[in-house]
Amino acid sequence: ATPTALMVGTGRGAQLGILIKGPEVLESTRRVDTVVLDKTGTVTTGRMTLQDVYVVDGTDERQLLRLAGALEHASEHPVARAVAAGAEERAGELPVAERFENVPGRGVRGRVEGREVAVGRLFETVPDEVARAKEQAERDGRTAVVVGWDGVARGVLAVADAVKETSAEAVQELRALGLTPVLLTGDNRAVAEAVAEAVGIDRVIAEVLPEDKVDVVRRLQAEGRVVAMVGDGVNDAAALATADLGLAMGTGTDAAIEASDLTLVRGDLRVAADAIRLSRRTLATIK
Ligand code: ADP
Ligand code: MG
Q: Domains, the chain, ranges and CATH?
């Protein structure tokens, strides 16, 4: 065949802001019919900000912010960055955590100012008023994380990020190429559905633990689908590697980029459609 055409395709890709691991990658795009999109950092900006703070009666808001902020300061997660920055802004300088543990897809826990603190989806049971505050925040399309210490949930922090300006157009372009978009996230269902609606996606798979994202890809493949996956996080790496075509956001983590076949340098989802269009065209000149 003509390796030259593949080389040309690779060079054109670089101009469009697509880094292609090897010319052979273009082959796998041909039969792709489904595109799984990670939510946070892929469809949304991933730059979250703290929006609301809710505390139960008898709990000091400033203390809750200090303890949660101190723990989240040690994490790189978009939710953690929002909490740490918001807490510092509202409560001043944060204490330093004495111990810290990251629980992937769930949150963080550790020791701050002599208390055992947890932030995220880490409480088995929460008081009714905390549950209500959390549900209200989620209905508003926010990601709500529960904060507590010494075994008791004491408040809720609501964070939100914005859908990227280009995401709705990107989904439309992917559909025009005959692909079915699927939104995949570890975040809660209400938030996921709000984002899906904003960009025009019908199929939503939410509340998926990081280690289970790869199973979602495998399940779609077992249904006979040929799957492209677009993601940015450490938690997307296994799914990106397993997908028939893995596309990483260049703005994302090294783990995601290394696991992928293609990197979208600027983190613009529209370029995912460009990539598929380019490789189909390149292959057409060969066949
Ligand atoms: P996504 O799949 O959208 O990229 P993740 O799997 O990374 O999301 O996280 C899923 C959920 O777990 C978050 O929406 C949040 O509720 C919770 N979570 C994860 N990390 C943290 C953290 N550091 N602090 C608080 N909550 C967290
Ligand atoms: Mg992500």
A: 3-45+162-286 (3.40.50.1000), 49-160 (3.40.1110.10)
